Amino acid sequence: MTYQAPLKDMKFVLNELAGLEEIAKLPGYEEASPDTVEAILEQASRFASEVLDPINYSGDQEGSKWADGAVRTPKGFREAYRRFCEGGWNALPFEAEWGGQSLPRLVSTPVQEMWKSSNMSFSLCPLLTQGAIEALLLRGSDELKRQYLPKMVEGRWTGTMNLTEPQAGSDLSLVRTRAERQGDHYLISGQKIFITYGEHDLAENIIHLVLARTPEAPEGVKGISLFVVPKVLPDGKRNAARCASIEHKLGIHASPTAVMVYDKALGYLVGEENRGLEYMFIMMNAARFAVGLEGLAIAERAFQRALAFSKERIQGRDLVQGGKAVPIIRHPDVRRMLMLMKSQAEAMRALAYTTAAAMDLARKHPDAEARKRHQAFVDLMIPVVKGWCTETGIDVASLGVQVHGGMGFVEETGAAQYLRDARITTIYEGTTGIQAMDLVGRKIAREAGATAKAWLASLKALDADLGKSANADIKSLRAQLAQGAQAVADCVNFIVETKDPRATFAGAVPFLKLMGIVAGGWQMARAALAAEQKLNAGDTSFLQAKIATARFYGEHVLVQASALRDTVIKGAPSVMALDEDQFLAA
């Protein structure tokens, strides 16, 4: 079956939950009119269905190939990328000054979801390029911007992030790549691994952003600098940066993951020496949000395929009427799995889009205090969007295989690819454990839970609105959301008050899951209220389904909140109970 962008739900979330009308009033975003956004979404949907989706399965089966330092992407990828750039899709979220379309993050977010749903491997190339553009926009010199941004925004040149080394994964203090000053540039030497689209045949140049140390740099993360290292130098010569190999991976086979070797390659400093990690986190935060979208996107794609299969697969008899065999969608357990897939995809979409809107408000709101408040909310939610959406994406993709039964374990049905592709999302750009440590350490403990408590206060205000509804579905969801909000509040107090970091970090991932589930419930409750208000004048079938799906989310997902709270608050001692030699009884 062909991917179809869920435009009806995307538009509902944009307009009813994320506040597109308000975002379009911000300075510089006036072009985001309803008609313009509608046209963009329709065109993106066609591109995803007609260009990217048809080469997703074949690209996975063929994979990218390395030979003699060069990488050939699968059949159809070069043509698709050419059409992608000609359509202006790479330039969507960037300022007109650099050739962009000056549209809000809120508008580019559903478009990115479509790319990731229809072809995740393809989407990774523009993802990294856009992150590199963000870093250069905020910290690059005028000369670097002039030299690189126009062609990167257009998509003629792509970008990468070069952080990881064989001995330096999440601990970047161990980075050994060297940068020696030589006049107005540096000579970069070292090896980087796991570099997404580090080498490929889609674009005429690749702009690597590389972390390295100068000889006199201090030890640790404070001694890391950031450099632009182009594959092709301004004079047209090939730089001393080469791809030694590409990885053989569980999934995302069409996306080349390169081992890069720099042998005194010419590099140009971004910003100041020894502040490279700070600059790289500009890219990292953008990438973390984008990877969170991957979790949502794969969940949506897996759901669509499972739903189509469940309507076609004839198996078993109707439980009430008996008689002839029926499509498996008639069976309650299959319905349960499909509802888990649907409800969680909708919750993730609403949370991601609302966070995107907050990014726009943090950047463009005319009031400085409002910008600060929205940025604090974004900082709180980025690890949740990244961690919870990706973990949930894996769960939903796994359910998709289960709905297919034995057919799901067979590659030809396509269901297995989503599960394989999804598995990396909880790992790259910071594992779920790292996201959780960031959430409880930097985002909650450091500020004594101020932003989390402000968000919880908004949930109390929502509870009052939910209490005005006579709808039984909304009443049920209200009760579950109230319990979930209390569970989060209890955990926030525990994190703030606990002095032993081992106790808070032992429950950090369960807390992140709790935050995601409750934040998703917050959005589903808002969606149910909005749908109820529009019932008499809107698409009745869609709106009734929205309310019923929200109730299901409360009764099947939000109910986990109290148990997760107990794990966070009471479960730390058992996490650390064994000595290292007790794990294996040899």
Explain this structure.
The chain is α+β, with helices and mostly antiparallel strands. It contains 20 helices and 11 strands. Strands 3, 4, 5, 6, 7, 8 and 9 form a 7-stranded mixed sheet that branches. Helix 3 runs parallel beside helix 6, helix 11 runs antiparallel to helix 13 and helix 14 packs antiparallel against helix 15. The longest helix has 37 residues. The relative contact order is 0.09. The mean pLDDT is 96.
Condensed summary:
The chain is of the alpha+beta class and 586 residues long.
Approximately how much helix is present in the residues? 55-70%
What is the residue-mean pLDDT, rounded to a whole number?
A: 96
Radius of gyration: 24 Å
Assembly of the depicted chains: single chain
How would you summarize the topology of this molecule?
Blueprint: H1 7-17, H2 20-23, H3 34-52, H4 56-62, E1 65-67, E2 70-72, H5 77-86, H6 105-118, H7 120-139, H8 142-154, E3 157-162, E4 178-182, E5 185-196, E6 205-212, E7 225-230, E8 241-246, E9 257-269, H9 276-312, E10 314-318, E11 322-327, H10 332-364, H11 368-404, H12 415-422, H13 432-445, H14 450-466, H15 472-497, H16 501-506, H17 508-534, H18 540-556, H19 561-570, H20 572-575
Parallel strand pairs: 3-6
Antiparallel strand pairs: 1-2, 4-5, 5-9, 6-7, 7-9, 8-9, 10-11
Helix pairs in contact: 1-10, 3-6, 6-7, 6-9, 6-10, 7-8, 7-9, 9-10, 9-11, 9-12, 10-11, 10-17, 10-18, 11-12, 11-13, 11-17, 13-15, 13-17, 14-15, 14-17, 15-17, 15-18, 15-19, 17-18, 17-19
